Amino acid sequence: MRARVLSGMRPTGALHLGHYHGALKNWVRLQAEYECFFFVADWHALTTHYEERDVMERYVYDMVTDWIAAGLDPEQSTLFIQSRLPEHAELFTLLAMGTPLGWLERVPTYKDQIDKLKDRDLATYGFLGYPLLQAADILIYRASYVPVGEDQASHVELTREVARRFNHLYGRPVDFADRVAAALAKLGKDDARYFEKQRKAFGETGAAEALAKGENLVARAAREVAGWTSDDSEWLLGHLKGSGKSVLTEPQALHTEVSKLPGLDGTKMSKSYGNTIAMREAPDKVDAKVMKMPTDPQRVRRTDAGNPDRCPVWQFHKVYSDEATRQWVQQGCTTAGIGCTDCKRPLIEAIQREQKVWIERAEPYLAEPKKIHWIIEMGTERARTVARQTMHDVREAMGLSYR
Ligand code: TRP
Ligand code: SF4
């Protein structure tokens, strides 16, 4: 079975090239290798923009259209919307009960964002709790890997702590001792005695060898003992290590190489700075926007030599151009051999070439928007099957599965 990857994106409407090169391109690559769950984090958008109800729906569908345009394949990847699965909220609530406030106050993005978004009142309960909501998003799918940017690494770390604490608090059922005894009985007297000896040795000295011997015995039992179940293995392994069953899975952040594309003015590409090129921007607009890009400020006249390191156009070449073109830019710029208009020409072509595929892929969905709705519908149901199973196990572990 392929390991599961989960990631989410806030619905910001049509995506721009910064989103594509910084995250989406990576998602498209991952879907070939992993079982991928990608979702629209609409509740997360509300943690900072809770009043923006009039744009939400359009933003959600525009973004999913861009996901598909970029090459996310709804047959391969499970695409869905967070708010369609109330299970996320249920897990968030249950995790909230035992999560110390300090864990959330210490998340670095908390203070950063409050400083950065000074014009918004972020002294809300939802904003403080949002990394825990993210933890619930991840844990509910028992994801092994979470592709996130550097800025979100602390959220994955929090998720791991939350899972560990949950397993510690609730991993052992009330009748744990009985279940262990039943599994030991299945092993037979000699093996059970041998197992207990290894467990004691590991507990007292932490000897890796004893742990390995105990694990090997469980693995052999799983292969050879009639009537052995995977639960028997879990209970005995928990018994061996002094832990319980792992109800929630500790995920790992997946840091992959992504290219950083700045905005047209050289600062971070962001809709609020008005320095973006949309993924499906009209070709003539792309032309106009790139032609207007500022260049090396010290290259005032065509005859002045320039320095690409001072020029945002060069940052784009680093993402879009091959080695030969990049050498032509370096050489031409530093010797005043080419003008900035010449320099921008191949860049415009490269961007438009990349965009052509996206524009074509999006066409049938724009002609029939229902198609996007169906894709989301299918993904939501696939996600629901997994989320329900986890919640069933979580409720049982917490003593909430009234029958
Ligand atoms: N917090 C992420 C962001 O703002 C979005 C997100 C929400 C997410 N839940 C997630 C990312 C779970 C990865 C996994 O970009
Ligand atoms: Fe920038 Fe190219 Fe002009 Fe040099 S020639 S300043 S790299 S646009």
Q: How would you describe this structure in keywords?
A:
mainly alpha; Tyrosyl-Transfer RNA Synthetase; Rossmann fold; 403 residues; 17 helices; binds tryptophan; elongated; 3-stranded parallel beta sheet
Question: Rg from C-alpha positions?
Answer: 27 Å
Second-tier CATH architecture of the largest domain: 3-Layer(aba) Sandwich
- Counted by DSSP, the helix tally is 17
The mean pLDDT is: 94
Largest sheet, strands/sense/barrel: 3 strands, parallel
Please give the alpha-carbon distance between the first and last residues: 33 Å
Q: Outline, from the CA principal axes?
A: elongated
* Lateral strand order in the biggest sheet: 1-2-3
User: What's the CATH H-level homologous superfamily of the largest domain?
Assistant: HUPs
Any ligands, ions or cofactors bound here, and which?
tryptophan, iron/sulfur cluster
Describe the structure concisely for a colleague.
By secondary structure, this protein is mainly alpha-helical.
Architecture overview:
The chain is mainly alpha-helical. The protein has helices at residues 17-30, 42-48, 56-70, 87-98, 101-105, 108-116, 125-139, 153-170, 176-187, 189-205, 208-224, 230-241, 283-291, 312-320, 323-334, 340-367, 370-397, and strands at residues 4-9, 35-40, 78-81, 145-147, 252-254. 59% of the residues lie in helices and 5% in strands. The model has no long low-confidence stretch (mean pLDDT 94). The chain binds tryptophan and iron/sulfur cluster. Iron/sulfur cluster (SF4) is lined by residues 295-296, 299, 306, 308, 311, 313-314, 329, 333, 338, 340, 343.
